């Protein structure tokens, strides 16, 4: 075998960081040593792995082909070291990225379970909207993602975790709040504040009204759910949000969930990961424990 794990680690770091200098800092190597390791690897393999665009490094076709295989080799090497160090087999680092609903209402309890039962499994956790989660997993920036709704990208695998639903909410003083039910025509006449395009919540809502509401008066679009809740509670705006995000506000009668029989806004929360990723016991452990956690919650209800 002509190449070394160090050369593969340098290759992976450059692919992840996008530049030789940032990869050198990440690996605690000099920039010249990092450049030399990459040059040696490319010479040994007989193929260019990156296109140099100024200081930025973009994977070539061969670099993209190599990356998942290099990641698996590096992961296996870490597992070998962990095993001989006497650590638990489920040990190491995994990068998890999730959309807001899962991040706020499900992930904290999941991480608590992992910390208790698998203390050597370390989760690097990031929160973004669904489209950014998909982009990050596709670009190898995270090992595992959690999204709202569907993902049709053939480069990614998807596994349903659990279900939730969206509700249209209004302030208790809103004219629609006292109605037994609200029609689609009445929704079209209202003013709205919604999640930004790219958010899973927004995609699910847009899909639900597609073909039945032609023109929605959207006055504001924000990433932050607390901003939307407050705007609705203090004004005559409507919004559409996950029930988990407004449940306590509805119970305190600060918001009212409108009954809109013509809208079906049930959806899924799902795990996604690269289709070309090799077997990963850390990823499998997180998915298994997450499904076990939500099944236990349903039994308690």
UniProtKB/TrEMBL annotation:
Residues 1-60 form the HTH lysR-type domain. The keyword Transcription regulation applies. It comes from Salinivibrio kushneri. Belongs to the LysR transcriptional regulatory family. InterPro entries: LysR_HTH_N (IPR000847), LysR_subst-bd (IPR005119), WH-like_DNA-bd_sf (IPR036388), WH_DNA-bd_sf (IPR036390). One of its GO terms (molecular function) is DNA-binding transcription factor activity. The keyword Transcription applies. Keywords: DNA-binding, Transcription, Transcription regulation. Gene3D superfamilies: Periplasmic binding protein-like II (3.40.190.10), Winged helix-like DNA-binding domain superfamily/Winged helix DNA-binding domain (1.10.10.10). It comes from the Bacteria. This is LysR family transcriptional regulator. It holds the Pfam family HTH_1.
